[in-house]
């Protein structure tokens, strides 16, 4: 079983082993390989070296395609998010999305440009991966919310208070800029995908403070060891054989 992890700088789990550059039809991707227990893990930093790529410029298709070329069947991603549901969540918590709402505007969101393929997204995030993360969270000293609706926005700006109020009315719990289209692209290649969302701050209008990048990165730094521990524990709990709908996503999907 080969597992892939997509995240930001410093979220790489396991012990570093080697590095490889892949040339995909969508661009070049650098992959770091690590060892977590008996599993080889392929790690890709979506923002590139030095965090130079903003969310709307990340080459999501190249990243997911590279994972497929490497034989990865399961992907765990990390995403920094703002909190919409301030009644139950606080900065420093983790959330495991079970559904999403897409408000992005300019990103390529499919591999199928020349044929009609409608993949089912009734259960967007792999139930087997989510179950492994939920089970692993019981042994990690951090608050983990087992369900959350992820609202994906284009960025790179933060959202307005009016937008956050609208997202809340639509059922959103957290808001971020990097979780989509990864989740859909993975499904199109029949790769299991789940996300660990790091709640870094309250979204605009939910407190009186101005949103800052420093605030986000400070919280990420504090929670980083817990996220890595959660992912490493979850990898050991993933079933060897897949029995989830992700592995059959293209059955009946093509017109």
- In terms of DSSP E residues, the strand content is 25-35%
The CATH superfamily title? Nucleoside phosphorylase domain
Taking all Cα atoms into account, the compactness measure Rg is: 17 Å
Kindly provide the name of the CATH class: Alpha Beta
- Low-pLDDT runs of 5+ residues are none
Provide an overview of this structure.
The chain has 255 residues and is of the alpha/beta class. It has a single domain, classed as Nucleoside phosphorylase domain (Rossmann fold). Helix content is 24%, strand content 27%. It is built from five helices and eleven strands, in the order E-E-E-E-H-E-E-E-H-E-E-H-E-H-E-H. It has helices at 60-69, 127-137, 161-169, 182-188, 213-237, and strands spanning 3-7, 15-24, 27-36, 39-45, 74-83, 94-95, 99-103, 144-145, 149-153, 174-176, 192-202. The two termini are 32 Å apart. The model has no long low-confidence stretch (mean pLDDT 93).
Question: Would you kindly provide a brief summary of this structure?
Answer:
The protein is an alpha/beta fold. It is 24% helix and 27% strand.
Topology:
Layout: E1 3-7, E2 15-24, E3 27-36, E4 39-45, H1 60-69, E5 74-83, E6 94-95, E7 99-103, H2 127-137, E8 144-145, E9 149-153, H3 161-169, E10 174-176, H4 182-188, E11 192-202, H5 213-237
Parallel strand pairs: 1-4, 1-5, 5-11, 6-8, 7-9, 9-10
Antiparallel strand pairs: 2-3, 3-4, 5-10, 6-11
């Amino acid at each position: 079983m080969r597992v892939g992890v997509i995240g930001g700088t410093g979220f790489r789990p396991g012990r570093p082993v080697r590095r490889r550059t892949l040339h995909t039809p969508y661009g070049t991707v650098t992959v770091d390989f690590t060892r977590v227990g008996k599993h080889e893990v392929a790690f890709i930093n979506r923002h590139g070296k030095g965090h130079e790529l903003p969310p709307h410029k990340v080459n999501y298709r190249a990243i997911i395609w590279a994972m497929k070329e490497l034989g990865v069947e399961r992907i765990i991603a990390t995403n920094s998010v703002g909190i919409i549901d301030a009644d139950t969540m606080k900065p420093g918590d983790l959330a495991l999305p079970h559904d999403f709402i897409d408000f992005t505007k300019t990103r390529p969101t499919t591999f199928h440009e020349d044929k009609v393929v409608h993949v089912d997204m009734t259960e967007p995030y792999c139930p087997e991966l989510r179950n492994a993360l939920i089970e692993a969270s019981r042994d990690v000293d951090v608050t983990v919310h087992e369900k959350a609706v992820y609202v994906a926005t284009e960025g790179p700006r933060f959202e307005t208070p009016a937008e956050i109020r609208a997202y809340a009315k639509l059922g959103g719990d957290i808001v971020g800029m990097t979780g989509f289209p990864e989740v859909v692209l993975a499904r199109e290649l029949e790769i299991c995908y789940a996300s660990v969302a790091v709640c870094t701050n309250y979204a605009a209008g939910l407190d009186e403070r101005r949103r800052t990048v420093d605030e986000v990165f400070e919280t990420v730094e504090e929670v980083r060891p817990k996220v890595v521990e959660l992912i490493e524990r979850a990898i050991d709990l993933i079933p060897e054989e897949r029995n989830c709908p992700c592995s059959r996503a293209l059955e009946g999907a093509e017109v």
